[in-house]
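Researcher: Hi, I'm a grad student and pretty new to this. My advisor asked me to get structures for two proteins we've been looking at. I'm not sure of the right format, so I'll just paste the first sequence and hope you can take it from there.
Model: That works fine. Here's the first sequence with its structure tokens right after it:
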Amino acid sequence: MTLLTAEGPRSSVEPMTTASVLPPPPPTASSGEPRPAAAAGAPALTPRVRIASPGRVAAAAAHLIALGVIGPTVFTALFGLLGVGFGLLFALLFGVVLLAGLVYALFALAWFERARVDGLYDIGLAPLRPRRSPRTGFVGVLHTVWLQATDPVQWRAVASFAIATILGLVAVSAAGAVAWGIALAVSPVFGWSNTRLFGIFPFDGALVPIAGVLTTVVALAVVIGAALLHGLIVRTLFVPSREAQLEEAARTSDTRREGAVRAAEVERTRIERDLHDGVQPRLVSIGMTLGLAQTKIDDDPEAAKALVAEAHASTKSAITELRQLARGIHASVLDDRGLDAALSALASRSHIPVTLDVRLPRRCTRAAEAAVYFALAEALTNAAKHSRATGCRVHVRVRDDGTLWAKVEDDGLGGARVVPGGGLDGIVNRVTAAGGTARIDSPQGGPTTVEVSVPCAS
């Protein structure tokens, strides 16, 4: 873990143009779909879900019986909240608060259902996360609630819970019939008399244990059938078909390829501009200075020495610029010592104070670390050159879902705008090429936040 504040001389790096709120690339596993296996290249296909193993059938039956007991109470409370919310909608807008609470109650229910299904069938579902609006203020709050209320992933989970509750009511009734059938089958042992089938039809003698056994078998079949049906419905709701997975994999590969091509084009343009505007004129100046010194070396040795000294100083500056340019192409410290040390070196060269909070329990792939490193470098450059910020905070974590997450927040003026080929465009392209997502939030007045997430094994 690194936690430091650094301030010191900074090398010149390609300036990053500020940009407005930028929509992220197509959703990844964190948006609620099954997590692909961590591997380079296109996302792996989700394995088939086994729902017919005896252990999972028994566990599913237990889940359904439990949901048959608690599910009706949950939906009664939710419908009650819905009714009260609409009833008080025009009473000082108190109903709006209740309806917003209903949305997040449904989110909590969906989160529970996804966790329950994932624990039962081991599908590999990513944890459901609340949606956020890129807008700010009261409009942003309303937009956030609307995004959450219309989240299809949430509603699929709620539908799964509702169907499981209905199947649970059937399973509870069948479980009661199993208990009654067993009692009926053993009733002759205890000398019970006046037995009535379903409490209506009286019968006795040998029919009693036979009816008990048949009732038990049929009721058990109903419970098992409900458990199997639950597995089929869950697979339909949460696991996309193979064709859909292949289409999504193709779209993801296309997006990553386009991001890689654009990132390479932006990087090439930056290198050409740095060479043309920086190193090349300096080398030309060195050549002219040395030529002038050559003409004066016989007539005015002192002036020639001064010119040579000037050329020597310019040569050292050119070497420094070339080193900085090479560092912008490839940070060797990133390979040698990892992202933590590379970011510490980056913060030490910043024009403004940078507070680093890096907590990395393990190394990620080189592609993931490089994408995050260069994204943070561009963001810090933007803060130093364009935002008039007095400080930056950088947070880096490896999340539970296996993504490398980083956020840069400055206290500058904000008001960013998208410029194709600029620094923010480069961030998005590079992160997209690594299979991740980028979110840039820069309202007028600040602060500006750059948040990136890249699969650790991208």
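Researcher: Oh nice, that was easy. Here's the second one.
Model: And its structure:
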Amino acid sequence: MPEKRKHEEIIELDIVVATRDNTAKLGYFVDDTVVNPGLGIPFYKTVLEGANYEHADWKDQACVRTSQIHWRDDHSVSWLERHMEMTQGFIVIGKNPGLFVLGEPTHDREDLDEKNRALPDPKRTKAYIIPAGMGLILKKGTWHDFPVSCGPPVSAFILNTEEVVEALASMPQAGPMNHGDCFKLRLSDHWDFKMKFPDPRPFVQKHGLVPGPVAMPLMGKEGYGAGMKREEVKAGWAGGQKVYVIPVVNVEVFVPGCGGPAIQPHLQSVPELANRGWRDYGNRRGLQRLASMFKELKIPATAVINSEAAKLDYVAKVLKESGWECGAHGLNNSSGAAKMSRSEEEAYFKQSLDDLQQSLGTRPKTWLTPGFSVTERTPEIAAQSGIEAFLDFVDDDVPYYITHEEGKRTLCLPYCMETNDISLCLTKHFDGRQYSQAIEDHVRQLAKEDGEKVVCLGMHTFIAGTPARALALTEVLGRLQKVPGVCFATAAQAAAAPCCSSS
């Protein structure tokens, strides 16, 4: 069994589609495959019957009930139970699959001592998706929780004994049990970590296990990540300024063969020369051009950097000499966190921040996820990783906090899509003058409005850093410096503004 873990650590269970093979240690799989045909009733001419489940045992007579289980937002596993005198069966009926948290039996494990044979083993516990029309008859001692909806309601037959049903019905509220052949544990009584399973909705959608689209509010109730709550920043946060303008220079590399933004998308040759070379030009020349422009204008900026880009000597040299705040932008721009487990995403954050600290000498406090490729855990992991300015959200003109239910907090500085050079130059095909004019109009309008605003100007070295765009951009930024109430800043400076930095 694992050792005690630090408070608030979360173990996230693997989620898999249940099959006959991967549930063999847990029970007897029920599907449309006839295994060991053996009954041979002679007058069944179109039926091939399987043999009895000879090890299934309901002591005397099975109690068969139906249940309809609806969605719950909480993905934590609070209870696990086992039965030692009978096998329990679950048959999923209707059209929708169910999620079953199941742990291998421990009562006969020779590698465990007596105490740990009375506990489930988190390392051998998973979240199994049982498709509609299939089921599982649990072996004696298999740890399990009650089935969970994968989005739509799930209906199931539950094969039990009256003894277990009566024991459960005798409990006025959920609690530990050791009677009526029901041994139920509250996990928090035994461990100081939390066990959760991933949101099953994208999984069942991806694997075609639901008959239609599933509503998937994957970013939590408020849209800012699982367990994250928005909190407004107090009025006066900008210290008398009207608009904080934060130039955000994206310094990126792309995995060869994986593509990326393109100036001539019709060119799909391999090896890729034109579009890859155009992107590489940004790091060789565009980065230097933008650094010179901001230094000449005496305008601060934040660079969000792929940690693999910072390992290039000519990139690291410019960044170290730029005077910019150096923020994090993942490992590279061809991979994000969207398909990662929690532990993989935590390691991804750590590696990105560690590598940037090693390459540039400072540990970033600002984060932008490559390609907005996030999970519902990304904001929480960013906060716990020490990120103080989080740029992934794009839904406002004002900064705001997002706070996790366990107290971790970070400041969101919305990354404006309307002023982003990919939006304007690659999607809308603006030339350098039109691109720069759109930025000027956006900032001037914000400066006319009531209240304090913030705008992140997303720039890429291979777009904003090209000569014609840099020339027009220099002129516009120079004019904006003279607009009353407009203050250029880094993301870190905005996070340190009077009301943003207060607790």
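Researcher: Is there anything I should tell my advisor about the second?
Model: You could mention this: Residues 228-495 form a domain with the TIM Barrel fold (CATH 3.20.20.370).
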